[in-house]
Amino acid sequence: MNHAISHAMNPTPTVDELLQQPIEAIIPHRGTMLLIDSVDTFSEETLSARATVRADAWYADVDGAMPAWIGIELMAQAIAAHVALLAMRGGGRARPGVLLGSRSYKALQPSFAGGARLSVHVSELLRSEEGHGAYECTIRHGDAVCAEAVIKVFQPRDFQSFIEGSFSS
């Protein structure tokens, strides 16, 4: 069955159809700020994504490695992908959101080696009607845990007012 016909009969995309989307169709990050390559799996509460450490990227040190502190952005992009895929599965689009922070980001190594294929796993701990969320996050290289954190995020109902209010205070 052709993809267009499938959507005409069933407007709600399947998980498999969503996972076939390019990452640019899922999260708004572009150019050098797009750090996630793809989404491997997702469910109501979890998502696993892939990221490749690019030795020629803006963040690369002299050895071509990604400083471990950038791992928090890998986690944030995986969370953004989770929120977006949930919205897309329901036939909508995700509202813009922000990373509020983390009480503890624990990097178990100082950097991620150039060329490394990282796995970023996020698991939702909290989702409120007001837009607050919390995720337990892990970055792995193979079987080794490289970084972990609990990340707090917020999706305001009116993003523009939220941003304007943030700058006027």
Q: What is the assigned CATH homologous superfamily?
A: Hotdog Thioesterase
Gross CATH architecture:
Roll
Unreliable runs:
1-8
Report the major sheet. 6 strands, antiparallel
Helix content: 10-25%
Number of strands: 8
Radius of gyration: 17 Å
Mean pLDDT: 89
Tally of separate helices: 4
| Count of all domains | 1
**Ends apart, CA distance between termini:** 55 Å
The CATH class is identified as: Alpha Beta
Q: Within the CATH hierarchy, at the fold level, what is the topology?
A: Thiol Ester Dehydrase, Chain A
Shape: globular
Give the topology string: H per helix, E per strand: HHEEEHEEEEEH
Keywords:
169 residues, alpha+beta, Thiol Ester Dehydrase, Chain A, six-stranded antiparallel sheet, 4 helices
